[in-house]
């Protein structure tokens, strides 16, 4: 399954790619992702939890990541399996970052190109509505990443009031006049970013509706209805 898409997140590209390199932080933005400590070979074991009402299915596997901070590019290679009709997936994702010229504030457009090999029950899923679901997951990730990156933005402090005019003390006969200096401004508080929270399970109910709509659209195109 081949997929291409793009989304925008706040921040300059050079800052965004370094945030992407924080794998535990970014995994918390991926719907349903579960990340384990990094292995000795540099890979990241983990998986994805998909919730079908009270029942949950976990895909387990591992991923490797690579970043080129100068070229503003990166890639993710992952493989996983689930105990559900031999479901398996292998995915390669490449992304490129560039400035978002339409944003009034610093923002980055992330272009994603992905190729996935799906086996077992997932093969039928990919043919039916895989692209539609990939768009939903990408949009959800973009929203969560934008919310996460906004925690890094420290609001500009309000301008302090002007210091009071120096007040001269009444001079004594044999002492020079004393001047009261204004108090120093309070220190600017440091930005405190709360730790990322693990993502909730990916709710399959919403994705099933996306698949149904994609399937109905295919039928409509077959009969010449819609686009």
Structure description:
The structure is a single chain. With 227 residues, the chain is of the alpha+beta class. 27% of the residues lie in helices and 32% in strands. The chain is built from four helices and eight strands, in the order βααββββββαβα. Strands 1, 2, 3, 4, 5, 6, 7 and 8 form an eight-stranded mixed β-sheet that branches. Strand 5 and strand 6 form a beta hairpin. It starts with a strand and ends in a 5-residue tail after the last helix. 15% of the residues are buried.
Which secondary structure elements does this structure contain, and how are they paired or packed?
Elements lengths: L1 E9 L2 H8 L2 H5 L5 E3 L8 E9 L2 E14 L4 E10 L4 E13 L7 E13 L1 H29 L52 E2 H19 L5
Parallel strand pairs: 3-8
Antiparallel strand pairs: 1-7, 2-3, 3-4, 4-5, 5-6, 6-7
Helix pairs in contact: 3-4
Total domain count: 1
Q: Kindly report the average pLDDT value.
A: 75
Number of continuous helical runs: 4
Distance between the termini: 21 Å
Query: Main β-sheet: number of strands, strand sense, barrel status?
Result: 8 strands, mixed
**Category from helices, strands and their pairing:** alpha+beta
Strand content: 25-35%
CATH superfamily heading: START domain
Global outline: elongated
Secondary structure: number of strands: 8
What is the highest CATH level, the class?
Alpha Beta
Share of helix among residues?
25-40%
Indicate the CATH architecture: 2-Layer Sandwich
| Low-pLDDT runs | 204-213, 218-223
Radius of gyration: 26 Å
